[in-house]
Specification:
This protein has 524 residues and is an alpha/beta fold. Helices cover 46% and strands 12% of the residues. Helix 12 packs across helix 13. The model has no long low-confidence stretch (mean pLDDT 97). It binds 6-O-phosphono-beta-D-fructofuranose. The site of 6-O-phosphono-beta-D-fructofuranose has 14 residues, from loops.
């Protein structure tokens, strides 16, 4: 397939961009007072307002045409049919099947019965931990979960538990992600092994950081309670059941998921076990239901009002036509503090690619830098850069309509700031003094969730998942592999013996750096 930049619609979009260039964003509103409703679309109960994008009705039409010229509708059908869309690894990407109720085949097998039985086991176990039927080795109820995992095996559960903190009525979950010993020590400080359940999440069950933390946790449990206690205190969510068995876990402590669930798409699988334990299986399944509602709309809504597709297409418009290299996600909800980290992995690990599906170098920029924060604190930090910096960034505002606390005035102020920031970015101002000028013309999309509950969180995350897929389809890249992370892992395994004192050949730059580290440590 030739690059998207060769399509007639892309050429038309570039000409259209030039024609629009002289029109300030704000003037688009003056020319079309109905712009609000005509650029706001619904997906699974979330309203998404694109009216502050640099776009008019013609842009929308051309972007939809671009998606058609790039066969996005066929790509969506292929994805949901369980075809091997991950071409480099020869795998489907069927995470949507984990939240749906359809019989889908992967490699000729109906995956539905397996999904159902895994879900049932997960539900039974989560509820048994919550209601105290599944107890620790000394008969104590579990008050805490120590959740070990990294990347997709941690970011989703952490985000979900924080976001749904208001509904978390089960054992408290502490996460250990980094191999930094301080993180393990901080997470276990004050925890009683007798009332702690360890959940290891690792698709491969080989990831070094997680395995080292799992060994530390196993030692922590067995030192306090004896090796017999493992069967009561240790469970795993993995696609590598064999490795979890070799680690010493009985089969019934292993909650499997399939190879066709990508790491960064695994929240919906048994990797979500800590979430189900924290908030209950019913709420966990509401999260799946919200994501499923997004899936249904993504498959059926016309491109001109298909929220995940438009999010992806406006992303391409901003990145490839308007030259924005970074994308900020601004959540007006403290409980969404981990959303930028989650989206960083989802977007940057998926679409941070420099070759197309056939391995040819792409000659256009792909995924922008994704970053962000929770607001209003970010307003007192990096928003200065958004308003007056020399680079243009696209932004997503995440707003929750219903208050998340008991004090209405807090929520009213929060909402006023959310509205003010996107208005200020768009309109700018010119009080005369150049130091005080905000140029405006800075684009944003605003998501309005009715409330921050499990259903809408699931819907929101699935919108972003499909955004990533749409962008990958237009760019012609594979969103489902991540070979770029391998080189560093391989080099680290070569360097580790040297860090431990062995005399192994090293790159001179690394020898130098290790010498500096040794000197700084005071041991040499
Ligand atoms: O290093 C990248 C990565 O493979 C991610 O894609 C994945 O989410 C993470 O590591 C953790 O992998 P695992 O679940 O196999 O431990």
């Amino acid at each position: 397939m030739s690059p998207f930049t060769d399509t007639p619609s892309w050429h038309a979009l570039l000409a259209h961009r030039d024609a629009l260039a002289a029109t300030p964003l704000d003037a688009l509103w003056k020319g079309d007072p109905d712009r609000g409703p005509s650029f706001t679309f619904q997906c699974a109960g979330i309203a998404v307002d694109f009216s502050k994008q640099r776009a008019d009705a013609e842009t929308l039409g051309l972007l939809a045409t671009l998606a058609r010229e790039r066969d996005v509708p066929a790509a969506i059908a292929t994805l949901f049919a369980g075809e091997k869309v991950n071409v480099t690894e020869g795998r489907p990407a069927l995470h949507m099947a984990l939240r749906g109720d359809e019989h889908v085949k992967a490699d000729g097998h109906d995956v539905y019965p397996e999904i159902q039985s895994n879900r049932e086991r997960m539900r039974t176990f989560a509820e048994a931990v919550r209601n105290g039927q599944w107890k620790g080795a000394t008969g104590e109820r579990f008050t805490h979960v120590l959740a070990l995992g990294i990347g997709g095996s941690s970011l989703g559960p952490k985000l979900a538990i924080e976001a749904l903190r208001g509904e978390a009525d089960g054992p408290r979950v502490r996460f250990v992600t980094n191999v930094d010993a301080a993180e393990f020590d901080d997470a276990t400080r004050g925890l009683n092994p007798a009332s702690t359940l360890v959940v290891v999440a690792s698709k491969t069950y080989t990831t070094q950081e997680t395995m080292v933390n799992a060994l530390a946790a196993r030692e922590w449990i067995t030192a306090a309670l004896g090796s017999e206690a493992l069967a009561k205190h240790f469970v795993a969510a993995t696609a590598n059941v064999k490795a979890a068995g070799e680690f010493g876990l009985p089969e019934c402590n292993v909650f499997p998921f399939a190879e066709w669930v990508g790491g960064r798409y695994s929240l919906w699988s048994s990797v979500g076990l800590p979430v189900a334990i924290a908030i209950g299986s019913t709420r966990f399944e509401q999260m799946l239901a919200g994501a499923h509602a997004t899936d249904l709309q993504f498959r059926s809504d016309p491109l001109e009002r298909n929220v995940p597709a438009l999010l992806g297409l406006f992303g391409i418009w901003n990145r490839n036509a308007l030259g924005m290299g970074t994308h900020a996600v601004l959540s007006y909800a403290s409980r969404l503090e981990s959303l930028p980290a989650y989206l960083q992995q989802l977007e940057m690990e998926s679409n941070g690619k420099r070759v197309d599906r056939e391995g040819r170098e792409v000659l256009f920029p792909t995924c922008p830098v994704v970053w962000g924060g929770t607001e209003t604190p970010g307003q007192h930090a990096f928003h200065q850069w958004l308003h007056q910096g020399t680079d243009l960034a696209s932004t997503d505002f995440i707003v929750v309509a219903q208050a998340m606390g008991a004090r209405p005035i807090h929520h009213e102020i929060l909402l006023s700031h959310a509205c003010a920031q996107s208005e200020a970015l768009m309109t700018g101002n010119d009080p005369g003094d150049p130091h005080r000028v905000s140029t405006g013309n800075r684009v944003s999309t605003t998501f309005v969730l009715p409330k921050l509950d499990a259903y809408h969180l699931g819907a929101l995350l699935a919108i972003y998942e499909h955004k990533v897929f749409v962008q990958a389809s237009v760019w012609g890249i594979n969103a489902f592999d991540q070979f770029g992370v391998e080189l560093g892992k391989t080099i680290a395994s070569r360097i580790l013996p040297a860090v431990q004192g062995a005399n192994v050949p090293l790159h001179p730059a690394t020898s130098h750096l290790l010498a500096v580290i040794r000197k700084q440590s005071g041991t040499h």
